[in-house]
């Protein structure tokens, strides 16, 4: 959904209209779930629910636009995920079960949807195997669609650190894919990067 439509939905949600909050949820929840699955695995649905409960509770006081709301929402999701990790004693690097994500997709083209779902699950598995700072940067940039400044706000880092983490993560993914296809690793890529 374009930011203009999200702005309208956000305005409606601020006024207390359930339809506005429903539109925000419908547009942003799949992205939030993908992000959370890489961080908290099976608890992603619960953490997303807590995130949206806080969003519904606090949306009337939110004074930004849809792009800012997206950043705010991912910050809330990240904080809830970190709370969950502390509560359960799990480590941030525990991406097990990431591919168990089931997305709701319209049944227009079952074969195409199955291939897309498999490709998405594989991509998320590869991202989850990255070092945590790189995985989060790549997820927020590529999956959630946040820009560098927005990602930096979510992660509480400087934009330069986000750029470096995302670039390293993408280079590492490219090296892994190149090695799988039997292509030589690109110049500047250490062989151990592929092995890690």
- What sort of overall outline do the alpha carbons produce when their principal axes are compared? globular
* Strand residues, percent: under 5%
**Distance from first to last alpha carbon:** 37 Å
Number of helices: 9
Question: Which short descriptors sum up this protein?
Answer:
71% helix, mainly alpha, 196 residues, globular, disordered C terminus, Rna Polymerase Sigma Factor, Chain: A, Arc Repressor Mutant, subunit A
How would you describe the overall organization of this protein?
- The chain contains nine helices and no strands.
- By secondary structure, it is mainly alpha-helical.
- The protein folds into two domains: 91 residues, Rna Polymerase Sigma Factor, Chain: A (Orthogonal Bundle); 87 residues, Winged helix-like DNA-binding domain superfamily/Winged helix DNA-binding domain (Arc Repressor Mutant, subunit A).
- Helix 2 packs antiparallel against helix 3, helix 2 packs antiparallel against helix 6 and helix 4 packs parallel to helix 7.
- The longest helix has 23 residues.
- The C terminus is likely disordered.
Sequence-ordered SSE layout with sheet pairings:
Layout lengths: L2 H12 L3 H23 L3 H15 L7 H23 L21 H19 L3 H12 L4 H8 L3 H22 L10 H5 L1
Helix pairs in contact: 1-2, 2-3, 2-4, 2-6, 3-4, 4-7, 6-8, 7-8
Put the structure in a nutshell.
The relative contact order is 0.10. This protein has 196 residues and is mainly alpha-helical.
